[in-house]
Write a structure and sequence with these properties.
The chain is mainly α. It has a single domain, classed as MFS general substrate transporter like domains (Growth Hormone, Chain: A, Up-down Bundle). It contains 15 helices and no strands. It is globular and about 55 Å long. The two termini are 25 Å apart.
């Protein structure tokens, strides 16, 4: 075969990054992720130091999930009928404000008892959940307006790579800064990352508002995303698979306990442990820009979630810090495959004027299940103990994969 013809058939791994607005959005997304992940480490360790209670760690997730879930359907509707750039920008500004409030609470400007600070921290996390509820559908829908449709799979892969890169560096930076310069100075760094993200989003041009076809009542508009997902079994199966994997298979909420009482690694070790899954995810995501796993999408999705469940069980049993790091990195690699495939399925199968609402449903299933999963982990750890609760989660993930593989055969056979 002619070499020039061969090069034309080979996918361009940097296709999406050749568009300057997508590059700006990618930088903003990286800063947002780093800030959010740093904040998660600091808040988790602060609450653990105050309470020494795994249930309190689970409540962090619940405090963010409740408002996020509550506004998601409305946020998806607003995303589909409004200027998506403005929704993205306003949600980022709200989350920036929440980080500034955490800085104020942590600083010496507020002299209050630990119990009072605990309530204030939970309150700010609740407010940030509202910002997250609006950011999820608007971010997802906005990406599709920044690149041509044929470049979307590559943009999704880079979007995942960016998120995972931030998730690698964020926890590591957060844990190290917390250990060396304290919580208040770390929150200052977090606020700086938020400011950079805002400055990256502002130059992006406003995009056309998608046309809504047909006359619908407000109730029909709000529930259109749910109807769309439940009528398309492939989309429903992909979302359900990740929902239960995240709900039962997540051990992140309990990492402060593993770092402090099982692996004896301290806050610095906690940051590294939180970063480990994303190290594996970044390596896998970069690999997928050159060798997409979408050809046998359904089969690869099921294998990746099954592998994730196995990793969670091994992590629970490990008492060696380095083995735990390797297993968490491997779990992140499996997770990266499932995230890219699921996002590609939803982007390609959803019309543009529905993307906000369908993304909102996806976020209810997936995004908020991270926080609900954190709450479930806290409750399970309280009832069963830390290690048995994580083993239970891994086993449940494997059972869910088996169920989806049997009852969603079209998803199993899906090729993109």
């Amino acid at each position: 075969m002619d070499k020039s013809a061969e090069s034309k058939d080979k996918p361009d791994p940097y296709a999406a990054l050749r568009f300057w607005e997508f590059r700006n959005f990618t930088i903003a997304r990286l800063c947002i992720t780093i800030a959010s992940q740093m904040q998660a480490v600091i808040v988790g360790w602060q609450i653990y130091e105050i309470t020494k209670d795994p249930f309190s760690l689970g409540l962090i997730g619940l405090a963010e999930a409740i408002p996020s879930i509550s506004v998601l359907l409305f946020a998806g509707h607003i995303t589909d009928i409004s200027n998506r750039k403005k929704i993205v920008l306003y949600s980022v500004l709200l989350m920036s404000f929440c980080s500034a409030m955490l800085l104020l609470i942590t600083s010496d400007l507020i002299h209050s008892l630990s119990s009072a600070k605990l309530v204030l921290i939970y309150s700010v996390i609740f407010l940030s959940g509202i910002g997250r509820g609006f950011s999820a559908p608007s971010f997802f829908a906005f990406v599709s307006q920044l690149v041509p449709k044929e470049t979307l799979p590559n943009a999704i892969t880079w979007n995942t790579t960016t998120w995972q890169t931030g998730a690698v560096t964020g926890p590591a930076i957060g844990g190290l800064l917390y250990g060396f310069i304290g919580a208040a100075n770390t929150y200052i760094t977090i606020v700086i990352f938020w400011i950079i993200s805002v400055l990256m989003i502002i130059p992006i041009k406003d995009k056309p508002i998608p046309e809504i076809i047909g006359i619908q009542t407000l109730k029909e508009k709000l529930t259109a995303g749910l109807k769309f997902v439940f009528e398309r079994k492939i989309v429903l199966g992909a979302i359900s698979l990740d929902l239960f994997a995240v709900l039962f298979g997540g051990a992140v909420a309990l990492l402060p306990i593993f770092a402090g009482e099982i692996l004896f690694a301290g806050p610095e070790g906690l940051g590294i442990l939180r970063a480990a899954p994303s190290i594996g995810a970044v390596i896998m995501a970069v690999t997928m820009t050159r060798r997409p796993f979408t050809k046998n999408a359904g089969k690869n999705l099921i294998i990746s979630v099954f592998g994730f469940g196995i990793c969670i069980i091994i992590f629970a049993l490990s008492k060696n810090f380095y083995l735990s790091l390797v297993i968490l990195a491997l779990s992140g690699a499996f997770d990266s495959v499932s995230v890219v495939i699921r996002a590609t399925i939803i982007q390609l199968m959803t019309p543009d004027n529905m993307k906000g609402r369908v993304s909102a449903v996806n976020s209810i299933f997936i995004g908020s299940s991270n926080e609900i999963g954190a709450f479930e982990s806290g409750v399970a750890a309280k009832l069963l103990g830390t290690v048995p609760s994580v083993i239970f989660g891994g086993v449940m993930t494997i059972l869910v994969v088996t169920f989806v593989s049997i009852f969603f055969p079209k998803l199993r056979r899906l090729k993109l």
